[in-house]
Amino acid sequence: MKRYLLTLLAVLAVLPAGAKVTTRVQKALVDYMKTSTFEGSLVGVLAIGPKGDTLAVLNPRTRLIPASNMKLITTGAAIRSLGADYRFKTELSYSGKIEGETLKGDLYIVGYGDPTTCCGDSIAPSPHALFQRWKGMLSKAGIKRIEGAIVGDGRFFNGMGEHPTWEYADIGTAYGTGWSGLSFYRNKQDFAVSAGPSAGTPVNVKPKYPETPWMNFTSRAFTGPTGSGNSLYLYTSDLAPVSELRGTFAIGRKPKTEEYSNKFPELTLAYYFYKYLTKSGLPVTGGPHYIDRDGLLRSDPAQGGILKAADKLTVLGTTHSPELSLIARETNYRSDNFYAESLLRAMGLKATGSADYDSCLVAENEVLRAMLGKTAGGIIVEDGSGLSRHNGVTPEAMVKFLKVMAASPDGAVFLGTLPSPGSPGTLKSLMTNRPEEERLRIRMKSGSMDQVLSYSGYILPEGSEDPKEAVTFCILTNATSASVQSVRAAIMRLIALLSEEMKAA
């Protein structure tokens, strides 16, 4: 491995800006740069063969916004830092004391950052199954009645829930919901929306799941004219239980379920477990509560807390998340911002004892410097998901990161977190005109936001699952004014040519 890494360093160190590359891929890349699709755009490309040969190169040392390609770095660094078998935990604990069959005190659900709690994914238990396990812990302790509250405790992760550079409109979306020490349903809420009877009339909107009876929800969204699209955004924060839907939804669009942010997941989880217990015959006199940023118990975010959260708790039992490798796979397949930010927080907490963003970035940069040396300077880390436009990555740094991951003991695990074109998730509709055998050899991550489109990953040779034997590539496009479809079509053609190059070799 040492010899391989030295060879890799030598290859990347001698890539001049005007390197003479004569492959079909390079010719196609040069031709594409002359078209109107990429006029005025910033484009960075690097593709390296398994023997260190350069297959395509353009601006390899220019830092560009990677969008969700940042998740490649977050998931890889998390696997290196925390271990592929790392599991988040959640504790069921109580204050007060048990007298006979009655808990005279509060029952705490103490979160340690598990993003999969009641998430709805197949990798984690359903809310019913999880609540059954927790109720079993109560039964084992002989508790049949609680004279106190169900308290959602998410204090394990400190710091702001959202990164300050995220765009204002993103904060209320499911993809901008931010992290929490105790989550529920990936901290999102589903809303049913449909157009009104005519342009200018209110949009029909109704909160669906989960219930959040403490929220004061209003809508100022209107039906837009035919063809105007969907510009609905929910504006909300954790500062008050208030949310407002704004924007337009075009007449003629099919009704749909929109996913927005739930800023009170700790209370939501406590509420649903409270309902489960009371329905199953275990009375709880105090109802659901959560702990605010001052450490006070609240039953309603609109009212101040009165009682201080307990300092000493007795643990009844512990449940654990799926392994980190499975969470990383969901992160990359679905491009899940919430999971990515949770992984970043866990890295920060382990390395520094704090989960605020400053500490998290220190932790991840230390991992990157250990992996990449000076090339780590090609990566600017602001968040874990890529939602921030302040992130920056050079194609050279991304390719080197992917190659170092491939050469590491975690190479096979990391490869397993990456989808192929046609797989469920963000790549489902890509390269459907290519043979299935070819698509399965391509493992990559997409990244997109307004005027940004990127793809990075591996192209395996036939009959191999070893990423060290793959073509490693990074294609980043910024400031594109052409349609997403035309930019994506050009990138997919370049990736197909790289695949053909690998097959010919």
Topology:
Layout: H1 2-13, H2 24-33, E1 42-48, E2 54-58, H3 70-82, E3 89-94, E4 97-99, E5 102-104, E6 107-111, H4 127-140, E7 145-146, E8 150-153, E9 188-194, E10 204-207, E11 216-219, E12 222-224, E13 233-237, E14 240-246, E15 248-250, E16 256-261, H5 265-279, E17 288-291, E18 297-298, E19 314-320, H6 324-334, H7 337-352, H8 357-372, E20 379-380, E21 392-393, H9 395-407, H10 411-415, H11 436-441, E22 442-449, E23 452-459, E24 471-478, H12 484-504
Parallel strand pairs: 5-7, 6-8, 8-17, 11-14, 12-15
Antiparallel strand pairs: 1-2, 1-24, 3-6, 3-19, 4-5, 9-10, 9-16, 13-14, 17-18, 20-21, 22-23, 23-24
Features:
505 residues, alpha+beta, Beta-lactamase, 2 domains, 5-stranded antiparallel sheet, 12 helices, 24 strands, 30% helix, disordered N terminus
What's the tally of helices?
12
Taken as a percent bin, the fraction of beta residues is 15-25%
**CATH H-level name of the largest domain... which superfamily?**
DD-peptidase/beta-lactamase superfamily
- The CATH class of the largest domain: Alpha Beta
Basic shape: globular
> What share of residues is helical?
25-40%
Give the total of domains.
2
Helix-and-strand structural type: alpha+beta
Q: Largest beta sheet, briefly?
A: 6 strands, mixed
The rounded Rg comes to: 25 Å
Uncertain runs are 1-18
Number of strands: 24
Strands ordered across the widest β-sheet: 18-17-8-6-3-19
What does this structure look like?
There is one protein chain. The chain is an alpha+beta fold and 505 residues long. The chain has 2 domains: 2-15 and 23-84 and 325-504, Beta-lactamase; 87-322, no CATH class. The chain has helices at 2-13, 24-33, 70-82, 127-140, 265-279, 324-334, 337-352, 357-372, 395-407, 411-415, 436-441, 484-504, and strands spanning 42-48, 54-58, 89-94, 97-99, 102-104, 107-111, 145-146, 150-153, 188-194, 204-207, 216-219, 222-224, 233-237, 240-246, 248-250, 256-261, 288-291, 297-298, 314-320, 379-380, 392-393, 442-449, 452-459, 471-478. The strands form 7 sheets. It has a 6-stranded mixed beta sheet. A 5-stranded antiparallel beta sheet has the order 2-1-24-23-22, with helices on both faces. A 3-stranded mixed beta sheet has the order 4-5-7, with no helix packed on it. A hairpin with a 2-residue loop joins β4 and β5. The longest helix is centred in the last third of the chain and has 21 residues, at 484-504. It is globular, with a radius of gyration of 25 Å. Mean pLDDT is 93; it is low at 1-18.
